[in-house]
Amino acid sequence: MKILGRLIFKEHLNNFLVTYFIFFTITLSFDFIEKIDDIIKAKLNLQDSLIYYLYRSIYLHSEYSNYALLISALITLNMLSQRNELTALFTSAVSLKRILYLSLSFVAFAGILNFTFSAYVSPRFQLKSEQKINKGLLNTGNIDDLIFKKDFGFIFIDLVIPTENILLNAYIVEINPQTHSIEHITFARKIEYQGSSWTAFDVKKTNIIKKQVSFTDKIVLNELKNLEDLSPLPYKAEWLTINDNIKVIKGGLKSGININNYLYMLTRKLFSYISLILLFLLSFPMGIQLGRTKKNVEVLFLSIVMFAGYAVIEMVVFRISRSANLSFAVPPIILSGLILSLTYLFWKTHFFWWGDKKDPLKVKYQKQ
Question: What does the alpha-carbon distance between residue 21 and residue 16 come to, in Å, rounded to a whole number?
Answer without folding.
Answer: 8
